Amino acid sequence: MTPPGPGGRFGARLAEAVALHGPVCVGIDPHASLLAAWGLDDDVAGLERFSRTVVEALAGRVAALKPQAAFFERHGSRGVAVLETVIAEARAAGTLTIVDAKRGDIGSTMQAYADAFCGDSPLAGDAVTVSPYLGFGSLRPVLDTAAATGRGVFVLALTSNPEGAQVQHATGGDGRSVARAVAEAAAAENAGATPLGDVGLVVGATTGTAAREAGIDLAAVNGPLLAPGVGAQGATAGDLRDVFGDALPAVLAASSRDVLRAGPDVVALREAAERTAAQCRAALGS
């Protein structure tokens, strides 16, 4: 049965978008430095001009847009209102949004986050990023709400920041790394789904051989693999092969500043996104 919500299961909709536009998600990250580079003030007006220009340029041309919630929240309620506008305008253009919120909590608080980002809320895109480091089971409210509304969830697994290894590579009593346990829990959520499940992982494009060293079978996750770090953070499209191996068909490469610095010209933004998508298609064999 097709779930209610924004139009069917997320994994299937993402697979269709990637087949049409290429395996790239463009972040909407209104850093103060990027606003300045675009000749905009670091205020709500600058935030709105920046964000809506990105949507105008790229909606309908990339597989997904990924607004980073923190850069909107730092402007207070009016900034959050801009995030709501971005989500609504992308949806109207038929483009998936992944709200990069990285929420993580327990019980009723996690259910409140689930309602905000996966329920009947103007902050609910097509998917949300979450943190499992209060235990994968703490994500149940988000997982269940997303499943009921046809949305996706991307769970932090292997991040590119050096501090992440302290937690993600730690091993439990069963000898598994924390990251491996997270990946296997996501795989269990996706069992039997085609072409992809709705529970994905965030695996940094700069993590090298970390997945193999941690004993993680990324291909077995059977869900989308969001790979931030292509471009300004140092990873090239070619690095994706080293990181993901047999899981390449599930990869959605995320690029933000490498595309955004081409703005504010709409045509230049589109050309930058097209170049990145072509490079990733070649690297991923898609």
From TrEMBL:
Residues 23-272 form the Orotidine 5'-phosphate decarboxylase domain. It catalyses: orotidine 5'-phosphate + H(+) = UMP + CO2. Keywords: Decarboxylase, Lyase, Pyrimidine biosynthesis. InterPro entries: Aldolase_TIM, OMPdecase_AS, OMPdecase_type-2, OMPdeCOase_dom, RibuloseP-bd_barrel. GO terms for biological process: 'de novo' pyrimidine nucleobase biosynthetic process; 'de novo' UMP biosynthetic process. Its EC number is 4.1.1.23. It comes from the Bacteria. GO terms for molecular function: orotidine-5'-phosphate decarboxylase activity. Pathway: Pyrimidine metabolism; UMP biosynthesis via de novo pathway; UMP from orotate: step 2/2. The active site is at K102 (proton donor). HAMAP family: OMPdecase_type2. This is Orotidine 5'-phosphate decarboxylase. It comes from Kineococcus xinjiangensis. The lineage of its organism: Bacteria, Bacillati, Actinomycetota, Actinomycetes, Kineosporiales.
